[in-house]
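Entry:
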Amino acid sequence: MAFIFNKNWDVAKAYVVGDNVISVSKQYVCTASHTGETPPNASYWKQISKWLDNTKTFVASAAIPAGSPVSVTSNGKIVVSVSGPTIGVTVQDLALDESGAVVVFGNVENGGWDWDEELPVWVDEGDLTQVVPTTVLQQVGVAVSPTSILVNPQHSITLL
């Protein structure tokens, strides 16, 4: 038997005790086997985290597309992450000097993505990718669906 871990909740899936899902940016564990019972129905689900909806507001120092990995500059604004440590992923398109949300930990969705589920998502030269970079390794999260990442930025490692 394989447990489901950190997948977006799906009305059509059969869940067993111990499965973990994400619903409305919160994480739940299944407490009774079922199909189609929506979290937070306490008869079937127990919420195990409140921190999955962890977004911060930043000001963009340049235009930044939705779904971009970002770093914070010395003036406190954000830029697309190329060489600095990634702190999160933008939720919407941002114009120069526009304030916007960055998911620093938790679930972010983007209809333009097509990820392979359960594989790591890396930052490579300002882009998100599932191809392991060859110069600097920084995992930004894990794909939980083709259009969703569970963001959890890790420390970067420079490869020699």
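The mean pLDDT is 83.
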